[in-house]
Aminopeptidase (Eschrichtius robustus), 786 residues
Amino acid sequence: MKTVYQPVGTAAAETWKERSGEGNVGWVRKLMLKKSENLPKIIQRIDLVFHSAVMANSRRKLIFNIYIGFYCSAVIQICICSQFTSSSIDQFNKDRGAFPVATNGEIFPWPELRLPTMVIPLHYDLFVHPNLTSLDFVASEKIEVLVRGATQFIILHSKDLEIMNATLQSEEDLRYRKPGKKLTVLSYPAHEQIALLVPEKLMADLRYSVAIDFQAKLADGFEGFYKSTYRTLGGETRTIAVTDFEPTQARMAFPCFDEPLFKANFSIKIRRESRHIALSNMPKVKTIELEGGLLEDHFETTVKMSTYLVAYIVCDFNSVSGTASSGVKVSIHAAPDKWSQTHYALEASLKLLDFYENYFDIHYPLAKLDLVAIPDFESGAMENWGLVTCRETSLLFDPKTSSTSDKLWVTEVIAHELAHQWFGNLVTTEWWNDIWLNEGFATYMELISVNVTYPELQFGACILNMLKDFLSEEKFKKGIIHYLKKFSYRNAKNDDLWSSLSNDCLESDSASGGFCYSDSKTTSSTNLSSAAEGHTLDLPEKTSWVKFNVDSNGYYIVHYEGHGWDQLITLLNQNHALLRPKDRISLIHDAFQLVSAGRLTLGKALDLTRYLQHETSIPALLKGLEYLELFYHIMERRNVSDVTENLKHYLLQYFKPAIDMQSWHDEGSVWDRRLRSALLKLACYLNHAPCIQKATELFSQLIELGMEGKVIKTQDLAALLHAIARNPKGQQLAWNFVKENWIHLLKKFELGSFPIRMIISGTTSHFSSKDELQEVCDSLLLIILK
């Protein structure tokens, strides 16, 4: 490949961007739509174009949208973190002797996106004083570092912080109380890094203390150290300050080594007004009274942990507390007017904490656990060690007004975040490409713990459930306990898990997105072959059907070629009870997934669902309704009226008796309520007259109750756009809003953040044509490059 060298420099880069930026939209789009091109190749080509320091930020934004484009074209799955852990553009510059340029025009000494490992943190002393009137904060820190290789600079992460002073002390300086040596600070915002240049080379195997004074505004969004507001019942607006650091926003609150590999201990002090309280990861040691009525809270030093798990809050909340069996104090905090809604969360937290300590055979290592309902919060919840932060809807439960679904959601969120106290906090992924070690196990243990503590729920699982079944319950449990104990307070990789599970045959399919497919074909009455591997299974004579992946314990999809699907369809219609509910669910799931992959006709999948009129298992009914509703919406959006009407008639024909049996009251078991909700929702989608009439009546009542003139919370914007886009008539409206307001959205939410991902996926997930794919790809690229 011939590469045209472009000079590095601001003027050259800006000129190239002006002349070439628009043309590269088509160039990148062509790459994205070529089946022969994979993501690494495309990123590599972009690196060769966006190779100057000043264009690194444009490159990052462009690559983010290429990920979005690949998501839309179903080539890969979008993840919060990709496998590309360092920037080849920086290596490209480094190989040519070119280094980034700092904001003051000097050469920035480190060209990589990842931090060097020649200096590592051991301990942070962090002081923070937020002002909830002026909405800013002043802070200082001392970082004890260990130098592993001689160097004349220290690289830290820092974003939107004003560094006022930085000094360095050696062990000798500290011993003899010598003043710190002033450091030169260089900033490179494109990588969110600062360089501390030392007057004398730092020597290997010695410790140093870095002191930094800094200040910043409390962030307007939901990342870093930000402000959140709530209104009292009396109409007063109050402000609190809260942190949210995962994955890379600790650098917005204090200069730090903001990668999960760099674990350290933290000693935190927070200055506040007397009308507020301060919370952090650890219990409070003491409070010092200062002049002017200010108070300063000192917290115990944390266990060794990553920066993204550090948390602190200044607020005026009330709490309810209890004690777990092991003596851990558990508290639920909320705005004063919502304190009465915290009691169920306390009950669930105590029960789930006891479960996890017994299951893992590892005590929760901190003396307390706080869960706080934050009025403005980006995701559902965040597992900060000892200080879990949640949306109010994810933690609060009002017995008078909340539904059973609300209660289940609160339970699931608490179970998930408490599981993270072990998976993610005690043992942490080395880098974000192995994030599934955190999220996968937390999700799996959420299901296990809720099944045990609240057995009325019946959850399934994914790849981890397959491993448990493959290894046996006891061996799987023993393996994950070994994993937790071996890597406590350390970092782990994907391979470390497989090693702990001690099974050589577990060559991971976790590295590839989506499902695996297994094709099976009956070739005679006495044998069956697997097309993928060429295996043959001998069957008894007169075998009329075969069901693979019994109980869905395997994380793969089975395609029954030949007469296989017809045989199973006949079985379901004649006597579906011969298969267990899990197997009936898996057949529905596999059939519609194969339709999506273009390997099975929609007609065949619909034939499979005909038996649902006789189905008695609510989970199986819900799975069928889920896919039927999905494909109805696809047909509806294709605007093929005759097909849509036929499908509508088909669905009403089979589900009208069940729909007409439903009441409009939230009563019955958990599964009864879920089925009622699904059936009535489907009935309204199908314009079933009785349903439309009742829904309109209830909607009018809701509007009357809700006419208070409150503005929709920013945190709920993604959910609102998703809801609008689900309606065929609102889909284009929502997508146009995103295109027209993209710059404003990026100012409010971080690029790559949870809301941005939800906004993109929520407004485009119902697109199903090549033209729509083309529009999404073109629009996103034009938005970024204009």
About this structure: Confidence is low (pLDDT under 50) at residues 1-97, 458-463, 504-513, 523-532.
